[in-house]
Every structure is written in structure tokens, then in C-alpha cells.
User: Which sequence fits this backbone?
């Protein structure tokens, strides 16, 4: 072996482990793409943009009620919960279209109560007054509605046909109206804190496995919970 | 770590699991706790929001949680989703299985009513001939009740008749409000004891496993806990035939894992414990497992108004306070319309009256709400459901949950005994309300579906006879001495009482027995 080749061989042997180790590093740190790593920057002092609830700003169309049903329901909403004092009525609260959305998203049994009830109410108006329900005056509407109003306890609305629709719809209309932004705004203007609020729980560590493309890429792991910042409570016993 | 064998594997982290962890670890026993769900951190997972800011304005999200009447849009994410962990039943006889899998389980959310069972429950068969007696009596459990009441800071008065045993309470000595006094006077015709309500105050506003039990266990350094561990099956040692651990599925990754332990303590809540034993084919040589499912009838009740409190005249002296009327039927005399009995919860309240108490709308309704504001007096019913063999659960081989685990088939319904009880309770309540000069605004005699009370008990009942029971008086399997069920599954009868104090006391008693047996190497 020529001396030059010997030296090259020795040098190669000396370099080899380092070169191999370099290849074994699975995820070498990529060069920084910019002066600040992209995922840093957001911090507790970052201002939060102010956003509004879309309802009341955007235009909404009915998707569940037929035009005739929507006309009947709109009249029913205004009849059962008109504006009273400084409070908005069901129409000012956007209740008809909100309940169109809620009922349209609901199981079939609930849809049937509303569809059947609205069709029945309109038919009754036409039979008795030769007018659609939407065009009845307050006295005429009262004569149709009042006989079906009942008193009842939580989770036990009337099961009698027609009384079920009237009483369930009445409660839904009141709840949707009193939980609306319009109602809340009036309360706020009167100096009250928002009255319809509560502690809302987000999904807690939601199970992502069912969410399409992510389902096959979940790392195998068991979630551990970090220690709480506060100390464990200790109570006198 | 894969070769680690724990002393005790505790499955479930609610009241019963938390108590087992506290007792066992404080005696130096190394425990592993598995919980099917994550830890709930109110600072991270919850925030105050107005209803209008939610997609459904606070209504229960449509189509979700159909059988959780307690759910609304604010709390919908804390309950077990019925599609993720389904169960089956005959549509004619629906069951409301109300579950929480967050760490701490249902101990995070409960009404706090805290009662002891009496020997009218423990020895019910001896009293009226129905069902079976428990293999224990009040005297056996009384010392444990006292310790549980101390831990949970139960407030109450020593005013209970024999069917509502007194206990180790933080004294309640406030005077009855005027409306309560009127109810008490009017109720004398029924020989009806009206007692101060008993309520677990807990600490710092919470009375849960996560703040009253688990911190004690964690302080010992003997507790290891894993969240999101959905237990699929209890495993058995091939040589000894005894349970030796379990397979569980990580809720998020779906990865399956196995842990080993010398002793298994099931504390997953009555029906989940039974489901796990049935899927594991363990401990059921009696054939009793899954049978005698019980709870209490909820839903019937009466809403009244106290006339003198209307039109802005309500005062704290007239309208305030709560009371419990313990079972009074079939105590000293025999009542011919039903066996056992019911309790009444009374609440006198200065707040608003619900609109559904008036058959009115619009301005007239608004005027009624204004007039009646502050005058509400509520009477609600908790009635004992009898333990019947035919009310049972079994594995439904046709359906699995999100982790491939077979689901439970629940077949249970109320009988005339429960319906007659509900009817009687409402009739008596209306009668007393009338005699007290209250106006009855609304009433209901129809019970909610079984399960609604979230007081499901039984299905692995305890007893001295291995042919008629699953567990012995220590909540220990008759067949596997290293297998315990410390939740409500061991109940022999339901009683009218909220079961939490009894579950806690039974778990404490069973855990101390287990620790003693392990210490003397009997297990």
C-alpha cells in the first residue's frame, strides 16, 4: 500500500463512525425559516380580537318550515310572546328562524310535533274563520289557542294531541326568546349582567379518532395530566 | 414498567373508587387507578358564556343525549355520549343511563343529599317479606357512615325517625320558615315526619372524590393513576383462575395495553362494573349477576304557591328552607296499595315561578309571573323501586361501543307498585298543600324513565348464600377472593334514600377488610 493510500484509509476509518452517527439522527433540526420560529409569539398578553355573534348580523332563511308553516309559526310567536315593557318579543329576538333551525336539526318526533301542529293550527283557522292563522286577529287566535294551554311539570309536557304542540312550542318560543342576544342587550342596557348565561363546558380532551384524516395518524400514547399549579388541598379531619 | 404488578387495580375514580384508593394507599398498599375519561379542569375546559353565544341558544344539542334529561347545551360535553358508548333496550321500555367518565366520575356532579339506609332497608324482607335481607345491618355500617359524613361534611339535624338514622352531622339549627311550619302542621294527619334536609357541604364548594378522597391517596405516594384508559376485559391467571389484571384501550390512540395486579377493585358505577364482569365472564356462577336492577322513581311531584307570599310580600321568614319527609308508609302500619314507600323533598323558594305553572300567555302570563314571584313551594318525590329478578341487564352481542367493547342491554320497567306509589305521593302532597292553604299550580304522577335518578343500584347484589348473590358482605366475589365490587352494584334493596353515603361507607368498609386480608396474606 502506498503511504498516501494508507493515510487516506486511516482517515476514512476515523471519520466513519461520526458519519454513520450523523446518518442515524432521524430528524435533524431544520434550518430556521425566519428570524422567529413560526410557532412562537402568541402569549398571554396577546390581545384577543373582538367578534360578534353572527345571528342578528347575517341574513338567515328558513330551511325546515314550509312558507305556510313559517307564516303560521311567525304569527304564533308574536301572539304568544309579543314585546312586553322594555323586553323584545319573539319576533324581535329572531325566534321563528332560530326555531326553524333547531327543529329542523332535531329528531323526527320533534319535527312531527311542529309540522303537524302548525298544519293543524292553520287548518283550524281556515275552518273556523276562513283565514290562514297568520291573518287572524288576537281575539280569533286566542279562541283557537287558549283551550289547549295546560299547566305541567318539567319533562312532562301534555301528551294530548294539539295540547302537546301548543305547550311545547310555547315553552320553546319563550326559551329561545329569553336566551337571545336581543333579550340580553335589553337586560344589559338596564344595568343587569347577562341573565341567560352559565358555565359552558367545552369538549374535554375530545376524542379525535373519528375525525377523518387524523384518525390514522394519531401517535400511540396515554395522556398524562400535568401536576396542578396549586397544591393539593388538605382538610382537617 | 411492563413487568410491574400492582397490589391493587382500582377501576373507576368516582366516590367508590376514590374511597378505595384513599383507604388502601393510607395502609401502604400500592394502587393503580384507571379511569375511562380525562381529567376535567374547569380553568381549561369551562368558561362563562351567554346562552345566545352558543349554537343552540342553550337548548340541548338536537339528537344528542336523548336519554340524559339533565343535559343542556352548557353541560352537554360532560356526559357520556350515547353514540360513543351506546346501550340497547326495548323502545317500549326506555332506560335513562346517565353517565360521566371524567376523572372523579359522577362525584363531580351530584345533588349532595346525604342519608343513611336504615334497617327498614337492610332488613326489608324481615319487615315485609319481599326480596332479600342484606347480609349486614345498620349497626355494621354505622361506624363507616360516621367517618364518611365527617369527610364529606354532611350538614343536618339529629331529627330523624328510625327510618332515617341520625349521624355525624355539622349541626343545622335554623328555624323553620312560616311556609314550612304550615306544611308541618298540615302534615300531621298523615303522621308524616318532616325533618331538616341533609346535605354534603364538602370543602371549597365541592364534595367529590377529586377533592375529598384522591388528594389523600396521592399524598401517600402509593397511587398511580391513568386517565383515558377504557377497560375492555379483566384478565385471569391461567394457572390459578384468579383475576390478575386487565386489558384497556387508550381512549385517544386506540392502543391496547395490559396491566397486572394482585387484586381487582371494580368501582366504575353499578352498570359499568356489571358490564365488565359479564364481558370478562367472571364471578357469575350464581346466575344472579345483572339481575335485580333498581333505582328510585323521580319525576312525580307538586308545585304550589303560598298565597300570602304573592304580590311582592315574600320574605325570608315566610319563604325559605328545605326539608325531607322520610318514608312514612309501611313503617308502623301496613299500607295496602304498595310495598315500601317514598320520601318527599320540600323546598320553599323566594325566586321566580316557572311559566309552565300557568295556562296563560303574553301579557296575562307576565302578570301572573309577577304576581306569583317569590311564592313557590315545591314537593318532589323519591320512591323506592323494588328489586325484581326480571329487571336486568345483559351483554348485547349485536353491538359494540367506540372501542369495540360489547354494550349493555337493559331490560327494566316499573310496575304497579311504583306507579301506585307515585300516585299516592302526589295525592298526599296535594292534600297536605290544600290543608296548609297553598294553591296547587301543577302536578305530575308519571315517573321519569328508569335510570333518571342516577341512582342505579343492584345487579351484583351481596348476600351470604353464593347461590343467590354475587358478592359476600364485604363486597367480595364469592368465587374470586381477589375481586371486589365497591360501587352501588352490591345493593340488595334501593330504599328511598340517595345512595351516595351508603356507597361510600360500603367502599370504605370493603377496602379496610381487603387491606386486612392482604396484610395477613389471606389474599
Assistant:
Amino acid at each position: 500500500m502506498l503511504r498516501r493510500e494508507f493515510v487516506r484509509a486511516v482517515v476514512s476509518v476515523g471519520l466513519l463512525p461520526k458519519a454513520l452517527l450523523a446518518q442515524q439522527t432521524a430528524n435533524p433540526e431544520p434550518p430556521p425559516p425566519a428570524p422567529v420560529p413560526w410557532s412562537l409569539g402568541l402569549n398571554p398578553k396577546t390581545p384577543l380580537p373582538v367578534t360578534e355573534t353572527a345571528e342578528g348580523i347575517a341574513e338567515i332563511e328558513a330551511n325546515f318550515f314550509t312558507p305556510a308553516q313559517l307564516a303560521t309559526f311567525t304569527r304564533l310567536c308574536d301572539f304568544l310572546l309579543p314585546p312586553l315593557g322594555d323586553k323584545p318579543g319573539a319576533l324581535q329576538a329572531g325566534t321563528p328562524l332560530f326555531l326553524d333551525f333547531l327543529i329542523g336539526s332535531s329528531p323526527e318526533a320533534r319535527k312531527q310535533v311542529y309540522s303537524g301542529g302548525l298544519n293543524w293550527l292553520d287548518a283550524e283557522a281556515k275552518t273556523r274563520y276562513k283565514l290562514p292563522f297568520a291573518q287572524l286577529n288576537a281575539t280569533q287566535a286566542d279562541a283557537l289557542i287558549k283551550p289547549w294551554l295546560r299547566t305541567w311539570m318539567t319533562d312532562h309536557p301534555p301528551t294530548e294531541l294539539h295540547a302537546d304542540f301548543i305547550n311545547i312550542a310555547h315553552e320553546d318560543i319563550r326559551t329561545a326568546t329569553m336566551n337571545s342576544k336581543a333579550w340580553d342587550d335589553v337586560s344589559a342596557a338596564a344595568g343587569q349582567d347577562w341573565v341567560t348565561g352559565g358555565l359552558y363546558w367545552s369538549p374535554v380532551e375530545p376524542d379525535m379518532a373519528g375525525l377523518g384524516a387524523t384518525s390514522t395518524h394519531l401517535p400511540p400514547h396515554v395522556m398524562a395530566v400535568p401536576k396542578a399549579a396549586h397544591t393539593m388541598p388538605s382538610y382537617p379531619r | 414498567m411492563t413487568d410491574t404488578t400492582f397490589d391493587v387495580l382500582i377501576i373507576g375514580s368516582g366516590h367508590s373508587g376514590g374511597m378505595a384508593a384513599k383507604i388502601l394507599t393510607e395502609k401502604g398498599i400500592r394502587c393503580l387507578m384507571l379511569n375511562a375519561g380525562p381529567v376535567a379542569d374547569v380553568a381549561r375546559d369551562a368558561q362563562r358564556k351567554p346562552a345566545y353565544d352558543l349554537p343552540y341558544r342553550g337548548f340541548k344539542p338536537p339528537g344528542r343525549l336523548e336519554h340524559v334529561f339533565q343535559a343542556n347545551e352548557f353541560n352537554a360535553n360532560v356526559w357520556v355520549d350515547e353514540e360513543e358508548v351506546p346501550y340497547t333496550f326495548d323502545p317500549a321500555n326506555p332506560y335513562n343511563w346517565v353517565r360521566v367518565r371524567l376523572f372523579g366520575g359522577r362525584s363531580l356532579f351530584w345533588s349532595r343529599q346525604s342519608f343513611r339506609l336504615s334497617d327498614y332497608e337492610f332488613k326489608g324482607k324481615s319487615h315485609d317479606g319481599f326480596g332479600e335481607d342484606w347480609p349486614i345491618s345498620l349497626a355494621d355500617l354505622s361506624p363507616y357512615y360516621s367517618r364518611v359524613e365527617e369527610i364529606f361534611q354532611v350538614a343536618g339535624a339529629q331529627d330523624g325517625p328510625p327510618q332515617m338514622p341520625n349521624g355525624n352531622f355539622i349541626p343545622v339549627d335554623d328555624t323553620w320558615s312560616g311556609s314550612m311550619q304550615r306544611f308541618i302542621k298540615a302534615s300531621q294527619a298523615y303522621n308524616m315526619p318532616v325533618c331538616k334536609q341533609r346535605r354534603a357541604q364538602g370543602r371549597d364548594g365541592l364534595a367529590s372524590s377529586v377533592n375529598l378522597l384522591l388528594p389523600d391517596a396521592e399524598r401517600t405516594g402509593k397511587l398511580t393513576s391513568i386517565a383515558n384508559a377504557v377497560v375492555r376485559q379483566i384478565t385471569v391467571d391461567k394457572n390459578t383462575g384468579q383475576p390478575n389484571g386487565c386489558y384497556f384501550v387508550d381512549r385517544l390512540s386506540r392502543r391496547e395495553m395490559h396491566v397486572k395486579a394482585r387484586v381487582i377493585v371494580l368501582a366504575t358505577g353499578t352498570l359499568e362494573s356489571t358490564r365488565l364482569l359479564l364481558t370478562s365472564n367472571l364471578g357469575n356462577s350464581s346466575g344472579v349477576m345483572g339481575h335485580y336492577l333498581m333505582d328510585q322513581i323521580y319525576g312525580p311531584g307538586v308545585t304550589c304557591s303560598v298565597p300570602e307570599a304573592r304580590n311582592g310580600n315574600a320574605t325570608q321568614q315566610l319563604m325559605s328552607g328545605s326539608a325531607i319527609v322520610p318514608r312514612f308508609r309501611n313503617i308502623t302500619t301496613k299500607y295496602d296499595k304498595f310495598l315500601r314507600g317514598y320520601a318527599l323533598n320540600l323546598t320553599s323558594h323566594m325566586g321566580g315561578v316557572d311559566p309552565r305553572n300557568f295556562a296563560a300567555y303574553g301579557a296575562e302570563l307576565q302578570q301572573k309571573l309577577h304576581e306569583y314571584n317569590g311564592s313557590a313551594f315545591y314537593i318532589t318525590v323519591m320512591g323506592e323501586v323494588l328489586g325484581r329478578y326480571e329487571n336486568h341487564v345483559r351483554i348485547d352481542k349485536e353491538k359494540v361501543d367506540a372501542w369495540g367493547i360489547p354494550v349493555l342491554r337493559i331490560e327494566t320497567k316499573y310496575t304497579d307498585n311504583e306507579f301506585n306509589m307515585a300516585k299516592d305521593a302526589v295525592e298526599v302532597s296535594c292534600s297536605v298543600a290544600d290543608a296548609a292553604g297553598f294553591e296547587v299550580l301543577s302536578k305530575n304522577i308519571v315517573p321519569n324513565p328508569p335510570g333518571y335518578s342516577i341512582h342505579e343500584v343492584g345487579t351484583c347484589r351481596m348476600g351470604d348464600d353464593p347461590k343467590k348473590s354475587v358478592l359476600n358482605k364485604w363486597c367480595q366475589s364469592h368465587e374470586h377472593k381477589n375481586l371486589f365490587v365497591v360501587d352501588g352494584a352490591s345493593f340488595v334493596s334501593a330504599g328511598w334514600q340517595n345512595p351516595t353515603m351508603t356507597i361510600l361507607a360500603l367502599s370504605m368498609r370493603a377496602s379496610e377488610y381487603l387491606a386486612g386480608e392482604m396484610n395477613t396474606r389471606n389474599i
Notes: The longest strand of chain A covers residues 198-201. Residues 147 and 201 of chain A are 41 Å apart (CA to CA).
